[in-house]
Amino acid sequence: MKTPRIPAMPMTRRGVMQSAAAVTAAGLILPHSAMPARAQTRGGTFRVGIGHGSTTDSLDPGLWENLYVQTFAACRHNYLIEVGSDGQLVPEIAESWDTTDGSTWVFTIRQGVTFHSGKDVTAEDVVASINHHRGDDSTSVVKPLLAAITDVRADGNTVVVTLEAPNADLPYLMTDYHIPVMPGMDGRIDPASTDGCGGYIVESFEHGVQSTVTRNPNYWKSDRAWFDRVELVSILDPAARLNALITGEVHLIDQVDPATIGMLESRGVARILSIPGNAHYGFPMDSRQAPYDDNNVRLALKYALDREAMVDVILGGHGAVSNDNPIGPANRYFNTEMEMKTYDPDRARFHLREAGLDSLDVTIAVADAAFSGAVDAGAMFSETARAAGINLEVNRVPNDGYWSNVWLNPNGDTPFCATYWGGRAVEDHMFTTAYAAGADWNEGHWSNDRFNELLVAARSEVDESLRREMYMEMQQIVSFEGSTIIPMYNNYVMAVANDIATPEQISANWNFDGFRCVERWWMA
Amino acid sequence: MIALRLALGIGLLFIVSLIIFGATELLPGDLAQQILGQGATPETLAALREQLGLNDPAPVRYWNWLSGALTGDFGVSLSNGRPISELIGARLGNTVFLALYAAALAVPISLILGILAALWRNSIFDRAANAGALTAISFPEFFVAYILVLWLAQTGLFPSMVRINPTTTFGDRIYMTFLPALTLTLVVTAHMMRMTRAAIINLMASPYIEMARLKGLSPLRIVLRHALPNALAPIINVIALNLAYLITGVVVVEVVFVYPGLGQLMVDAVSNRDIAVVQAVALIFAGAYVALNLIADVLSTITNPRLMHRR
Fold first, then answer.
1. Residues with Cβ within 8 Å of residue B256, at least 6 apart in sequence
2. Residue A36 has pLDDT above 70, yes or no
3. Are A367 and A418 spatial neighbours (Cβ–Cβ below 8 Å)?
4. Fold classified for B89-308
5. What is the C-alpha to C-alpha distance for residues A348 and A112, in angstroms, rounded to an integer?
C-alpha cells in the first residue's frame, strides 16, 4: 500500500546545515533546495531502460564510464559529497568539511551510517575508497584527476586529504561518480564487491542485461530512495527503448531520438524532460600540426559553421549554441559577456587572409561514436565552410576503435575530428582535464601560457570576485585562441512515464537527474 | 563413414579456431584501450595491459586458450574477470531455447504448408502460401519485428521486450518469448517450405509415383507414404541449415526484443575487444554448424537405404 507522507528533514541534516557556516571556501555549500511541495510516496517498482551497458561493464569504480553503470552505482552507493539539484554541494557521507589553507582538507565522516553488509562506515573505508584511484598500480580513469593529492589518512572520524598545491575545488572533485564510499579491508576496497551504503541493496545483476535492487531498510536518509525496487534494463536499440516505454515495460528512458519526440508526446503516456547542462559536442584540432597551429586558421573555421542550424538539426532544438566554451550554463562562472561567434563567411575569409591563405583544404574525421549526429554535423560544417573558401572534406571513419585510433590524433593522420564531453560541475575540473598543457585528454594538444598560469592561480584563489575574473578570462582565451570548436551544448533528453513523479528541479549535473533519479523520484 | 565425418568435423573446428584467432588479431585497437575508453592514458594503459596478459606473443596466447578450451575451460573474460563458461552458460541456454521455440513453430508449419502446396500444386493455396512466405522472408528481420511489436505488443497482447531470468517459469518464458520466436518463424519458414514443396514435386514425375497413381491410391497417401520418405534428405539438410541460423544469426532479433542471447554477447565482445569471449562464442557457433550438419548428414544417410547399404 502506498502511504503518502511529507518528508521531514532529519535532525542530523539540519544540524549540518547550521554548522555549514563553519565551512570556509565561501559559498561552497548551500542548504538543500526548499522542501518539495508535492507529497512523495513510498513504494512501487521503478524500471529504467538505458541505451548503454554491455557484458564487459565492470563493478570496479575506476573503470565506470557509461550511464548504465553510473545509474547502477547511484542505486547502491553514496559519495562523500553529493551535487544537489541546484548544482550546490550537499553533504553525504562527509557531514562537513573544512580547510585552513586550501591544501589540507578535513572531511568529517557521518556517524551511524552502515554498509549493506551491516558494517559501519568509517574514515578508514573512505581512505581506502579514495586510494583505489591513486598509486602506481591503479588503473582508475580518475587517477590524473586525483594526482595532486599527496596524502590521504584517517584521523578518528575525520579524513585528512593533503594536496601538493591549494585547490578550493577539492570538495567538488570528491563528488566525481568514480569515487563512491566502499567498504575497505586492510586499506583497500574490493573492486568486485557490490556492497555500498546507498539507498538500494543489489539483489541480482547481469552485466549488459539487467540489474535489480531493493530498498535498503537501514538507509540513513529518510527523505530519499522512495521505490521499493528498482530495475535497470539495458536496451541499446533506440526504437526498442521507445517501445518499452510506450508499452509500459519501463518508466524512464534516455537518449530519446529528437525525431520521435512529437510522436511520443502525442501518445500521452510519457513526458519529455529536456535538461540543459554542461555537456557539449565539439571538433578538436591538433594545434601542433599545420595548418591548425595558426590561430587565424582556427578562428576562420570557428566562423565557418552555423551553430544555430546545428542545434536545430543535430539536437532537434534540445540544446543551446556554445561559443567554443567548454564551460556551460550550469557552471558558476559561465562567461556570457564574450562576443558571440556567429556564422560569418566574410569574417572567416578575413582570418584566412590574415593567415596568408586564399583558400583552405582540410579533412575532418567523424564517426557517430563521437556523438550521435557527428557525421551529419560534419556534412553541415562542410557545406557552410564552402562559402568561406574552406574546402572541408568529411572523412567518415568507423565507430569501432574511434577513441583509440582517431580521437587525440594518435597516428598523426586525424588532426581534426569530433568529440563529446559530459561537462563538469566545476571549471577547474573541465579545464584541468582537457585544456591544461600536457593533460592526457588535451584533445587539441593545446598550450597557452597565460591560460596555464591562470589555471594554477585560480585553483588556490580564495577571493571570490578575483576567482570569477580569472575564470572569465580563461574562457575568453579558450574561446578565441583555443583549439577546439564547440558549437553546441546538448541537453540531456529523457522520457519519463506519467506514473513517475519528478521534483521541481532536476539536476543539470549529469543525465538522469545527476544519476540520482533512483533516489529522488517517486511513484505518482 | 560416420567416423570419417566426425573426424572431418573436428578438423574443421580446429581450422576455424585458427581463423578466429587470426581475425581477432587484426581488429584495430586493443582491449585495454577499449576498457578505459576516453579515460585511457599511457600509464593506465600499460598497467592494465600488464594485468590482462596482453603483452604475451600471439602464439602463446593462442595455445593457452586452445588447451584450456579443450578441457572445457574457456578462461575468464578479459574485461570483467568473470569465467567465460558462466558468462556464456545462461545465454547459451536462452539462445537454444529461442532457437528450439522458433523451430517448433517453423518446422511443422513449413512441412505442412510445403506438403499441401505440393499436393495442390498451382492452386490458389499454393500461390498464396508461396507469396506469403516469400513476403515474410523478403522484409528485413527488424522490420518484421517492429510490425509485430506494433500489432501485438502495443495493443497489449504480448510484451514488447523479453525480461527473463533464471527463475522465470516455463509458461512465462513461452509467453514472453512469443514475439521473437514468431519473427524468426516468419524469417525461416519460406526456405524450408519451398524446399519441401520442390523436393516432393521433383519426385512426383518419377515412374514409381506414376505406378502408385495407377494403382488408384489417394493423392495424400502418395505424397506421405511414397514421395516424402525419398524427399527427406534435402528437407533435413535445409532444416539443419535453418536451425544453425537460428542459433548463430539472430542478433537483430535479440537487439529489438532485448533478448539476452549469445548474439548480443558476441557483438558486445567484439566491440569491446574481449577476445577471449569472442573466441569462445565463435567456437560455439562453429561447433553448432558442424554438429547440425553432421546430424543432417547422418539422418539423410539413415533415410536412404542406398547410402546405408552401399557396397
1. A237, A239, A240, B141, B142, B145, B146, B149, B180, B183
2. no
3. yes
4. MetI-like fold (1.10.3720)
5. 62
Number of Cβ within a 10 Å radius of residue A267: 11
Q: Which residue of A has its CA nearest to B160?
A: A244
- pLDDT score recorded for residue A29: 41
Side-chain half-sphere CA neighbours of A109 within 13 A: 25
CA pair distance A62, A66, nearest whole angstrom? 12
In sequence order, what DSSP letters do the residues of A378-404 get, joined into one string? HHHHHHHHHTTTEEEEEEE--STTHHH
Coil, strand or helix at A274 = strand
* Chain A residues with beta carbon closer than 8 angstroms to that of B275: none
ipTM of the complex: 0.77
Beta carbons within 8 Å of A117's beta carbon, 6+ residues apart: A183, A195
Query: Between chains, do A58 and B33 touch, taking CB under 8 Å as contact?
Result: no
Q: What is the pLDDT of residues B214-238, one digit of tens each?
A: 999 998 899 888 888 888 888 999 9
A210-215 and A104-109 strand pairing: unpaired
Contact by Cβ (8 Å): A253, A244? yes
A392 - beta bridge partners?
A362
B37 closest CB neighbour out of A246, A249, A403: A403
Q: How far is CA B174 from the centre of its chain?
A: 19
CA distance B108 to chain A (A): 30
Mutate to test the interface with B, among A179, A243, A250 (most CBs of B within 10 A): A243
Q: How many CB atoms lie within 10 A of CB B17?
A: 18
Distance CA A75, CA A69 (A): 10
Compute the nearest-CA separation of B308 from chain A (Å): 47
Chain A positions contacting chain B at CB under 8 Å are 54-59, 63, 65, 136-144, 192, 204, 206-210, 233-237, 239-240, 243-244, 246-247, 249, 398, 400-401, 403-405, 407, 440-441
| CB within 8 Å: A56 and B77 | yes
Its pTM stands at 0.81
pLDDT at A400 over 80: no
Find the length of chain B: 311
Q: Which pLDDT belongs to residue B6?
A: 80
Phi, psi of A485 (to 5 degrees): -85, 120
Determine how many CB atoms are found less than 10 A away from the CB of residue A10.
13
* pLDDT band at A38; cut points 50, 70, 90: low
Query: How is chain B split into domains, by residue range?
Result: 2-70, 89-308
**Which of B26, B77, B80 to probe by mutation at the A interface, max A CB count within 10 Å?**
B80
